[in-house]
Q: What sequence folds into this?
């Protein structure tokens, strides 16, 4: 089992979408996946579940206070993916011990991969998700706000945790057409980020600037193996291969 945490202190970076695309890519490759939705905004839960759990027991707030996380999973609308859905009661656990999740994560060992989506915040819930992870990925957009929050997070991880060496950055909304324009704002921000960070994932993992991701999440539009989807498809598979540390091959749509 490998645990992958997606984190961002800033909203709107495509963190939850990246979590969903990665989980679906792994499932399409035949892997058994559990998504742990620790984002109080519950984007993953909303995407994967047709209705909330009426019992009030199948959610991450309850799971974090029990011994067995697997007892709180639910099947999703995507074959091969189960989820521990989010809960508003996560707000009551923001000061929980940072090792709370890592000491229980082994109870999900029936899965090949665990994908953890987190809230755009810096608190013990985020640190717990990072502590449990084998690899942490922060998607950024090429903006000053994203740079500021990524730099803050970098400083905190280096000074307060031992998570920094498993933390990586990737870019969402990358426009390959602007690569030849050395005076573009994209080039300027790439220079700014690269002057402060050396933990960027390879550029073939950068998600392109496209409405296809939003249509995928909102409308259930599939990522087909066609020229129209080639850039996005390749970047999703490349990112998934990186975090999985194995070559992911998918022939059909997902």
A:
């Amino acid at each position: 089992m490998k645990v992958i945490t997606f984190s961002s202190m800033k909203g709107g970076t495509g963190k939850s979408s990246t979590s969903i695309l990665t989980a679906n890519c792994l499932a399409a490759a035949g892997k058994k996946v559990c998504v742990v939705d620790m984002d109080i905004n519950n984007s993953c839960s909303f995407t994967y579940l047709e209705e909330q759990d009426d019992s009030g027991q199948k959610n991450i707030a309850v799971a974090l206070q029990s011994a067995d996380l697997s007892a709180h999973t639910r099947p999703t609308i995507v074959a091969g993916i189960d989820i521990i859905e989010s809960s508003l009661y996560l707000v009551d656990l923001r000061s929980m011990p940072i090792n709370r999740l890592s000491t229980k994560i082994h109870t999900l060992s029936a899965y090949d991969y665990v994908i953890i989506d987190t809230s755009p915040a810096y608190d013990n819930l985020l640190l717990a998700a990072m502590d449990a992870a084998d690899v942490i990925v922060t998607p950024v957009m090429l903006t000053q706000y994203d740079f500021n929050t990524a730099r803050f997070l970098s400083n905190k991880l280096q000074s307060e945790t031992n998570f920094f060496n498993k933390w990586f950055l990737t870019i969402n909304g990358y426009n390959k057409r602007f690569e030849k324009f050395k005076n573009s704002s994209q080039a300027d921000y790439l220079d700014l980020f690269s002057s402060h960070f050396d933990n960027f994932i390879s550029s073939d993992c950068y998600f392109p600037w496209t409405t296809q991701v939003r249509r995928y999440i909102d409308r259930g539009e599939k990522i087909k193996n066609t020229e129209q989807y080639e850039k996005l498809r390749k970047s999703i598979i490349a990112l998934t291969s990186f975090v999985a540390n194995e070559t992911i091959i998918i022939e059909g749509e997902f």
About this structure: The two ends are 22 Å apart (CA to CA). Strands lie at 2-6, 33-38, 74-75, 81-84, 113-118, 135-140, 167-174, 207-208.
